Amino acid sequence: MRERNTLLQMGLMLCLAAFVLGGCGGVTPPVSYYTLNMLPRVPGETPTSSDVTVAMGSVGIPDVLDRPQIVTRTNENRVQISEFHRWAGSLKDDLTRVLMENLNTLLAADGITVRMMDTAIDPAYRLSVSVNQLEGALGGKIKLSAVWTIRDQRAKHMFVADETLLEETVTGEDYDSFVAAQSRLIAALSKEIAHAIRGLRKAAP
What we know:
2 domains, 5-stranded mixed sheet, elongated
């Protein structure tokens, strides 16, 4: 009887260890990694020289989104943080990179180049963008709320201060569709900002 109890205890301990390591025979699903998509570049629209440079800072995002996991919303007061669907890098860095590249694509034909603050030489304008909302439901809608300003190079005079509110439908109930919808929202935001920068460029003496 004592030997049977000992064997039973050992079996329970082994099962507990297996559960901790792998779910007692279960298989842990693989992690999928995602990035935002940039607007496609149009051949022949990249200028050989730039007349105007815009310096851009890192895009601000809410703390709830500033994490490796992709965040979706299940209702107005609850979010879901997926451990198995993650950003390939930092969402903040990825969003900044995609916005900057989108603007360069949209403004290439106007002789305007957008660079990060630390690499922009004698910029004419300074662009600041803060994304306050970029979330929604799988198979539902994603909302984008962003505030952005365009100032002179010394940041003493504000030319534009605007807020962008957009909504995009997620075409599927998977994370690929979710991230694709987020990319479309960033593209739409990029077009609004590019339009404002282009207007300043044309109005300049």
